[in-house]
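Appendix B: complex inputs.
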Amino acid sequence: MPKLKREDWYHIAQKVNWTFSYVSHEEVFPKEIVGETQVPIEAWEEWDEPYKMTYREYVDIQRDKDGGAYAVKSALSKAKITNKLGDGWNNILKMHYGALAVLEWHAGIAEARMARFGLDSAWRNTAVFGSLDEVRHGQMQLYFPHELVREDIQFDWAHKAMHTEEWVSVAARATFDDMFSATNAIDVAVGLPYAFETGFTNLQFLGMAADAMNVGDYNFSSLISSIQTDESRHAQIGEATLQVMMKHDKEKAQEIVDRMFWKAWRLFGVMTGISMDYYSPLKHRSMSFKEFMDEWIINQFMQNIESVGLDKPWFWDQFMYEQDHISHSLQMGIYFWRPTVWWKPVAGMGIEERQWLSEKYPDWEENYGPYWDTIIQNYQNGAVEKTLPETLPVLCSCCNLPICIPDAKTGKVEVKTITYEGQKKHFCSDPCQWIFERNPQRYAGQKTIVDRFLAGEVQPPTVPGLLNYMSLSEHEMGYDPENGAWALQYNKDKNLVI
Amino acid sequence: MTTAKPKLRTWSDLAKFKRIPSEYETVTHNLLFNVNGRYELDPNDPVVVWYDKYRDKSAIQAESMDQWNNFRDPHSIVYRKYTELQDERETFIDILFEQNEELRANEKLDQQWLQFLLKAFTPLRFLAHGLQMMASYGAMIAPSSYIINCYHFQAADEMRRIQRISYRTKELQLAYPELGFGEEERHIWESDPMWQPLRKVIELMLTEFDWGKSFIALNLVLKPLLDELVSVKYAELFRLNGDELMAEMLENLYLDTVRSKEWSQDLSKLILEINPNNQAVLTETIAKWHPLVMEGITALAPAFEELPDIKMPFAEVLKDITNKYDTFLEDSELTLSKIS
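Resulting structure:
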């Protein structure tokens, strides 16, 4: 190898800013696409990423990583492992690929936005690697599930989901459009790599890889752990940007972190919460979602924000309260509305699973047991139609998820309604209302699925019409793979076995 | 009514082509889902408006945005192919540097050549960073995933060039600490008359936000002309002046330029094919930037005719570049005569 070490020459390549004289700085970096802060222009030249890598190292290491991950896939392709893992685990795969494969590729566009409009050359350069990483993640997470479409058409949604008006897709896009797809460079730098990647996905991917290994899905495990190693590198864009902002505009930094931490939490609750507490096969569950949050996410996040000098988000009480609720509320919603998703929502409500839920969440039986008892009763009475929807839920105008999570102050689901420029807007929580109200011009024109339904955009205005609008054919729409058979194991007279 | 369960062999969106797609298509096809203002945000949000104005309503027009999904990178580069290809190129350059270190450890470069390197070679990293920023802009603004990925790789290629030049800059700094390598280049880039016309082009081009026009300006004018000068012609100049190893490095970096030229030519053809009215935009945009870029290139004449010991007549350098550019345009189904 050549003799000079990275640290000998790296700064020469990394600091290549210059002062424009044929055009103004503002013309090269327009504020609508760069974002606005109190940070003086020259202060951005202090931007410094803690973990450095050269192009030469990058292509070498990444080539090796791909070699490993693709070799595992190639070896396991013929084994058809996915078929044998059961509907619960397959749901996790379908949800994961559908909601993340194409979106991660889109995160590459956001990285490119920073690579162009980041206010220091080191920031821009680091984002070039970030953009390549996201191309990698998008491409791998399309390549791996691609062969599965032959066996199960729902895997088509790895590619298709984000092109549809399916409601989970709309909710995911509402969050990620805000976080990175239509977001100025400064907001991307704090929202995506810090609030989301450092806050949630970096650790989530570690957890998921371990779960996949437990279940025996070595393919997915190797894929996810390979991706995670990239995340931890490019996520540092967030902290490096915050280090500069904290000196000059802490308020702005705090505001972006709070906003995007909340939105990330909402989506994380659906995806990971339900996966861990309901879809993951019971015998392979190592911890509940709440325990996972406590051990992996919350502690780490507290340390992270403390180390950069940020405060806890103002909605911390509601956030902590929701640890006991988010997965359960949304599981109820998704199970009931199961025709409207691209996987097969299992109830996860066998007797042993229910006991597990009560162990992990002592108030679960009191809060959620009665609702499931009603569903059980309906199945036992042969009234399957009563376990299915006829009407629409109220959706939050911020996160686009059903309003179903209780408020920490009252312990009840509270729909918060405001009127903005003559339009009624409903919110699931104080933080979602706060996000909307601090910048209503950014969100006001977005229509939830219910808004579209009421505006006559869904024709005919019936459940079948809605499914068609969501591009869910009869072969793609979700259903309970046990068709309620799990409900029949409960004692008919008393409902509860326990 | 129950319909027969469809059998898929690939994404439903690719099944319409009625053939087994390549890995390239499987992981590149139609990934961009927010064209035509399809954002879950208010349509008047400034960033949403930016994409509407500069991408969806670009001067380069298609009947439908989906037509941009007809583009194919002639090299079908996917991420894992890119890292493999570039790892090999970088290994080659590593070997060059190793040889350089072993064979020329005690060599003293003459002052005249050192002045050439400081004034005309090591400042290139600033110029290339401008090209990198523009390529990244292409990656954030292009209207199809097939095009966007080409830009991502092009931006990374520019970074590769910057880092290799920077490595050499550090070697020179260590060997000749008094000359200002690694320190003076920003000042030279900002004020030396030889660089100013090029810096002007870069700065002006950085403010061209329309995706179609920025593609034409960067990939059909600036990059093919400039890289011919600072890779191919510089390589000749280095070789003439006894710097074989740096000549080989520049030629290796030029392989990246060739890849950029090839996909750009194919995209140029698609632009013409999609809508004949795009011909006028192509012609006008090339006509706008061509003289400015030529002015920038011409200002580098002292790098060939004054600074080095063994010189190259700049008129011939220019002639070669111009001829090669004419061929490039012809292969893109464009000609300078149409333009002028």
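Residues 86-117 of chain A form the longest helix (32 residues).
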